[in-house]
Amino acid sequence: MNSHLEAVLKEKRAMRQRLAKPLCQENLPIEASYHRYASELLSLAVNFIDKLEVYLKTIQTIPQLQEQTNNMDNALVRIESLEAEVEELVERILAWREEQYGLLQATYRNSHGAGSRNTNGTTSYLSMENFYP
């Protein structure tokens, strides 16, 4: 055991230099009072590195923002014009529906007349009165 301790004492200087030198440039000497902050900094660095790709993509898209904004404006104008067309078509369909309903009522009245009700006084489930409330 003594021989081992003697060898350690002889290499004391070499060991101090070896311990002070960072291994593969990965170790940094940090005072003990700053260890808590270093661990917090490390977790922040890990989160930043995880999100680094997203950050880089965001930065790369900045020059394209004006073009994308213009595309969105054009799409909004197209949507508004299509909305106007749909509203016009709905109005035309409702008008056509009312016209068809009027024609159907007129045809029904002409074909059945006022005196041709059912003999038992009730209306059929297929009659015009049951088409629309």
From TrEMBL:
Cellular component annotations (GO), alphabetically ordered: centrosome; HAUS complex; mitotic spindle microtubule
Provide the alphabetized UniProt keywords: Coiled coil
Which Pfam families does the entry link to? HAUS2 (PF15003)
> Where, if anywhere, are coiled coils annotated?
65-99
Tell me which Gene Ontology terms the entry assigns under biological process.
centrosome cycle; microtubule nucleation; spindle assembly
Instruction: Tell me yes or no: is Hydrolase among this UniProt entry's keywords.
Output: no
InterPro entries registered for this protein in UniProt: HAUS2 (IPR028346), HAUS2_metazoa (IPR026242)
Return the protein name: HAUS augmin-like complex subunit 2
Protein's organism: Pelobates cultripes (Western spadefoot toad)
